Amino acid sequence: MGELEVIQVEAQLADALGKFHREQQGHAPESVEARLLSDMAVIRSTGAFTSTENTLCATDEGRKLVQSARREQRALTRREAEARVAKVLSRPVLRSYYDLDVRLGEQVEVYILG
Fold it and tell me: Tell me, what's the pLDDT at 22?
């Protein structure tokens, strides 16, 4: 794949996952960046929280609540996210990982590709 093709596929992947997050949370992240690295796709979303989640993140207890809720939601929707990534890349997703920084409203997803 040429450099231009990679950039176009990364943009398609970022768009697909931005739409997925909007469907799941009713709020699209402010920014979604995708990078392809040999057998991995790395997606970083910033401004990922809803206004309610941002308000909750003002306290320690609220941050724990948001983190717990987001992790549970990820567990429930992981397979669908993996399917969307596989469709855009025309490659199977073998497994995926997710992490969230509640202080910054940033999340990172890593998809290991077949």
Answer: 93
